[in-house]
Amino acid sequence: MADDTASMSIYRASRTIKRKQNSLFNSLSSIHEDSIFVSEIAQLSQELPLVANMRCGLWYAKKFHSSCYFKSTDGHTNNLSFNTSRLNLIRNEKKEQKEFGSRIVSVILFRQRGGCMIVDSTRKGKRFPDSMSKTIPIWTCVLNRAILNYRNKMNGINKPKEGGTSAQNCGTIVQESLEWDSSLHLPLRVLDTEKIRIDSKLNEWVKVLETSGVDIASISSLLKKPLRPLWISQKTVIWLNEVPDYHDWDFTPIILISASASSDIYRQKTSSEFSWNYIAGAGDDEESWARGLTPILFWNNVYDIISSGPDVCNQTVAKIVEKDRVFRSQRGQNAPQVSVKPKKSASTWSNQSQDQPLDIIVANGISGDLLDSDHGLYWLGLTNLAVCSTKYNIKSSNVDSVLNCDKNQILCTLEDSEAYLHVPVMDSKFDRFSLQRNLPSALNFAELHLKKGKRLAVCCNSGQDQ
């Protein structure tokens, strides 16, 4: 028993230290410092547009020309894929902008500017996220090969000659196709075994692109040089007097800027007024730390936030977020209340400083008085809907029905056997269609029981993903 108590104490102490290191001020200070590096690199080739990879990349500069959406999961070793739902090309511009904002790398940028710079970051202690080391290189290679196939087809290459048709009739275009680089370019850190695995799938992915309905003819006419990724991190050595003019290159550069230092070790930093811990890839997973702050709000108020210091940073951000919410609400725009996980009871933690989450949940204007904090069950305002972890003991509450969204079943004894439904929703990193498949049955179940006036608990493994 004593050993268990000691283990729990060590666990709680380590969690407290980690929470303090991952504080809001540390995250925003790290982003602010990394943005200086991004700005310096962007100045080297000012004609190239700066593009943010959603969503992490958006934090690292005040202004971007556009944005794109390349997921690291598409480049994970056991999940290599070329996803046609994230082509980052203009097919139906109005539709894509409506659905995804401006998450596109328009081929128009390649034609007008001759390339682009893409900004992203990672927490993994690596120099580059998988989105940069594999997902984007796969994308550029597949696109190059599809364009080459199209040009060869138009030029009659690999086809029987008809009526005296010869390569001389196509002249320059044939020569351009023959010199078109369609090889796979990966950073040196990618193992040869993985490069071989990727290479073996490329032709299959090209066929997927060609049958997806993308207008390859238009892309081919706009893109004068093949795409090729280049990588820049904080460890990259750049001789300023030897930076080449990209106009002279025989390819269209996609310069991949990894914003953060490649370290998984917390480093103490000291500014003129405050000390703080540097967090690599701090902009990642914003739901877990940003407290409703967005990149736009951050950069519009960056001086006030950074100069507020670690002691009052949370309060400063809360005021900025609430002011913005009220501003949008008064204009009829989408302005939801921000929900923040409540902190543990005072007896659990010895230090309840600004590093702890806010102590209320805001839902329909109702404060934390409605929280069943003893059991970890959180009611949403005055509704009959609550959220909890699957570790929560259903027997200890007055819940009438349970919707289990965890991938695992739980032991649940309710009077009505039909008052329990298990919909195994996987994390989007492992199955991005899982929520889409399970949502209809989950909504029908919730609607059925809530209309009957029953109290419904929606649970998952952590109690925070519902």
How would you characterize the overall build of this protein?
It comes from Mikania micrantha. This is Rit1 N-terminal domain-containing protein. It is a single chain. The protein has 466 residues and is α/β, with parallel strands linked by helices. The chain folds into three domains: 216 residues, no CATH class; 43 residues; 84 residues, no CATH class. Helices cover 35% and strands 12% of the residues. A six-stranded mixed β-sheet has the order 8-9-10-13-11-12, with helices on one face. A five-stranded parallel β-sheet has the order 2-1-3-5-4, with helices on both faces. A two-stranded antiparallel ribbon has the order 6-7. Helix 5 runs antiparallel to helix 6. The longest helix is centred in the N-terminal third of the chain and has 26 residues. The radius of gyration is 26 Å and the shape is globular.
How would you summarize this macromolecular structure in one to three sentences?
The chain is of the alpha/beta class and 466 residues long. It is 35% helix and 12% strand. It is globular, with a radius of gyration of 26 Å.
SS elements, strand count: 13
Multimeric organization: single chain
What class do helices, strands and sheet pairing give? Answer: alpha/beta
Any idea how many domains? Answer: 3
Query: What is the typical, i.e. mean, pLDDT?
Result: 78
Q: What level of helicity do the residues show?
A: 25-40%
- Terminal CA distance reads 35 Å
Radius of gyration equals 26 Å
Overall outline: globular
Beta-strand residue fraction: 5-15%
Taken in chain order, the helices and strands follow as HHEEHHEHHHHEEEEHHHEEEEEHE
How many DSSP H or I helices? 12
Enumerate the spans where pLDDT stays under 50 for 5 or more consecutive residues. Answer: 91-104, 159-178, 342-375
For the biggest sheet, the summary is: 6 strands, mixed
Strand line-up of the largest beta sheet: 8-9-10-13-11-12
